[in-house]
Amino acid sequence: MIKDAFNVSSTNDKVEKVQHKPNATYWMFTMFGTAVGAGILYLPVQAGIAGIWPLAIISIFMVPAVYFSHKAVLDLLMSSMLLRDYSGTINTHFGVVFGFFINIIFFMTWFFCLTAYSIGLSENTGVYLQYLGITSINLAKTIYLSLIILIILFGMIKFCKTILLKIMSLLSILLIILLFGISVYLIPQWNLNAFLSFPKTSVLISNILLILPLLVMSFVFFPAMSTMIITYRKSYDGDGTALQRLNRIVFNSTWVLLLFVLFFVFSCVLSIQPEDFQFALEENINCLTLITIKLKGTGLLANPGTLIGLAALITSFIGVFFAVRESANHIVSTISRSVFKKKIKKDQADNYVLIFLLLFLWLITITNLSVVSMFSALVAPLVAVFLYILPIVIFYTKPGFKVYRKPINLMVFCIGVLLLFSYGLGKFLEVVLNN
Question: What are the structural domains of the chain?
């Protein structure tokens, strides 16, 4: 879940000391909570269809890929003598015009992500209501359920923001605990015979390419790093330990996140049959709803499973929405000043943005596009631009970054390029192999 985003505004303030030292454990869990959200509930669906071996093989490479990509962002933000967030740093190196286009790409990235969450909320709610017998049909197949859900969420965001943020913090902690509990609860149902069947090399490669984007998306916490880095620089730039402390937090966050996410995914994949995951993909539902609907909840998870999944979708939707809303407001204000030579009022711009987002989210939601495909084909490649590609491009094209021109950063760049085409290549190979 994206609780924080690289802000559209940046600060030119020089580093100032603060009285209270930041807490490393707090920031590690902030990074952890930023990454953990509804996205990982769809990861087992794609991984479960592909099988256990592609997941096992690709998991080996996740630590260096996640750590060194986030370290590149850290090095980039720490390179300036001034306090700059991600957006401000990009503007510094490429100029305001390029920075504006980056902001548009940023908006598109999280708008697609927001759309995936909206579709997930509608589909999972519709299936669950039908499962409980409250409705005779899946209301997600109509145009009304998604509109009702979006109006309720927009109303909460517009009029209850402060209370909502407090509830979100509590739900995020609760979500992490519950997902870990579900992972442990499923252990007795693990079928280790899944390891006995090794796929053909061509099938293995195809499945790895299909899993890669969604797996990488489950380890993204760089949007929250700007705030953390600025906080640490204010406290520790004086004694020169800021970078060392931040490196330790990023490294520890990577390991904790890796163990948590992979434990959950492996637990789900080893407990559920591939054909059931195929059912989830076709119905556009997440793993927890699948456990409830297809497997009759496996006892204690009869209803809580779906409810936990819906709570994760809601918190992720709201967390991403704030980033999308702020970015859209910035775009509207910039266009108003630059094109129409008129400064638009903040409240007026915000109202336009809310109406635009509501209508477009609703229109796309009722098309019922595949959530897995949206994450893999649209969101993950765009995230790769910010996390794996842009920092390395700056290191190799701008003066003063020679120290960062290392083979490991070239590896990060290559992974970013692969992420741009991974899902498309995987689908292409899948079609070829099936013919």
Answer: 24-434 (1.20.1740.10)
